[in-house]
Write a structure and sequence with these properties.
Rossmann fold; three-stranded antiparallel beta sheet; 9 helices; about 50% helix; binds adenosine-5'-diphosphate; binds zinc ion
Amino acid sequence: MRIVLLGAPGAGKGTVAKLLTDYDGSVQISTGDILRNAVKAKTELGKEAQGYMERGELVPDKLIMDIMEVRLREPDCTKGFILDGFPRTIPQAEELKKLLVKLNLKLDMVVDLDVPKDVILDRLTTRRTCSNPACQEIYNIKSKPPKPDGTCVKCGSPAVQRADETVEAITKRLETYNEKTAPLINFYRKEGLLKTISSLSSEEIVSQIKTAIKQ
Ligand code: ADP
Ligand code: ZN
């Protein structure tokens, strides 16, 4: 499948994307993960992106489009892709549309994960992420805790709070979402691609996506 996952930070895009990957072999493409890995590896891209990310601001569109053009041309994308955290702005969505025409590909669907704000806030402050770049398993100290010593159940690396998961950065990310990303809901509604899902369970969300994709 070729889909875009929309939704505020904490809406569950990453978790849903991973489940969909297991389902049909489509690759998960998370611009957030690509950028965090670049920051960790101290590449030029990482150095450019780091400040924006720590402040909870968006990285410039040009940088993101350069990453995505390269990524979508990689051979594994023929299996399908789940875009998680991209596009994030109207200009990115316009550019993606052109890029897909160029690559002769069509999106199947754009899924908006519609989650109430209090749930979002609670999830973001209790979230922990495996610090191993090859794993990045997502935990929640209440509902899906890491091991008692704070390490990842899958790989044993420390599960940590992200630098942009302080209350200030979270508030800023939510504002940025409302201002820059929420307008994409209407953009894709007009394109006839939008499917809104309001469930709070990732399993239920995935099953709704599977049903919609088969139709
Ligand atoms: P979340 O959805 O939880 O906010 P992500 O992991 O998707 O987190 O992104 C983390 C940060 O990476 C964002 O706050 C932003 O700075 C940057 N980023 C990720 N994707 C994009 C994008 N498509 N456009 C601009 N900035 C992005
Ligand atoms: Zn891990």
